[in-house]
Amino acid sequence: REILQLLRQINAVQPQWKCIGWLDDGLEKGEVIAGLPVLGGVAELNDWKEELAVAMAIAWPSTKAKVISLIHNEKVVYPVLIHPDVTFEQEEVKLGEGTIVTQGCRFTVDIQVGRFVLLNLATILTHDVIIEDFCSIMPSVNVSGAVRIGRATYIGTGTQIIQLLTIGDNTIIGAGSVVTKDIPANCTAVGVPAKIIKQTGL
């Protein structure tokens, strides 16, 4: 519903999108949510006959990546969606397909954001940050210069990440954490400063 709100905010400034419904295997086809019907799930999407723009409104990185892997329809496209109040120099910020940039986000220079990344409310990315595919960055996260965030990583609300660090793939950083050193792949880290509390062993 928040992404639907984003689309409506984009349209209020410059009409671009006609929102026709939801696609979700966990909901009953025909159910109405926020005024729009559930059109089906992945099967219906793979059978879609006309070009269709899809916003991947899934926050959990591994689920997002799995759903994308199941979609094989060449008619499906994934636009980059940017809230109208977000301004930046296009040559300085590269955004991969399907990335969603919500209200209040701010960027500086030489930033690379991968495919299907969610940058939630008031995210700040500074110079030379790299965020790889399928990451989800929750509201009010500050990422300092030259940080690299690995694939399918989840950064919780209000996290602060100091400069020159690497966070590995498939990692979770708990809300309110302060990351002051590198965090490896496949773990959960929380606290001030952030410490590993769980290693998944993947």
The sequence of SSEs as H and E is HEEEHEHEEEEEEEEEEEEEEEEEEE
User: Based on DSSP secondary structure assignment, what is the total number of beta strands?
Assistant: 23
Give the percentage of residues in beta strands: 25-35%
Shape: globular
**Largest sheet, spatial ordering of strands:** 6-8-11-14-17-20-22-23
SSE layout:
Blueprint: H1 2-13, E1 22-23, E2 32-33, E3 36-40, H2 42-46, E4 52-53, H3 61-70, E5 76-77, E6 81-82, E7 93-95, E8 100-101, E9 106-107, E10 111-113, E11 118-119, E12 124-125, E13 130-131, E14 136-137, E15 142-143, E16 148-149, E17 154-155, E18 160-161, E19 166-167, E20 172-173, E21 178-179, E22 187-190, E23 195-199
Parallel strand pairs: 1-3, 4-5, 6-8, 7-10, 8-11, 9-12, 10-13, 11-14, 12-15, 13-16, 14-17, 15-18, 16-19, 17-20, 18-21, 20-22
Antiparallel strand pairs: 2-3, 22-23
Can you walk through the features of this model?
This protein has about 200 residues and is an alpha/beta fold. Helix content is about 15%, strand content about 30%. It is built from three helices and 23 strands. Strand 22 and strand 23 (about 195-200) form a beta hairpin. The mean pLDDT is about 95.
Based on the model shown, name its key terms.
202 residues; alpha/beta; eight-stranded mixed beta sheet; five-stranded parallel beta sheet; globular
What is the gist of this entry?
This protein has 3 helices and 23 strands. It is of the alpha/beta class. The chain is globular, with a radius of gyration of 17 Å.
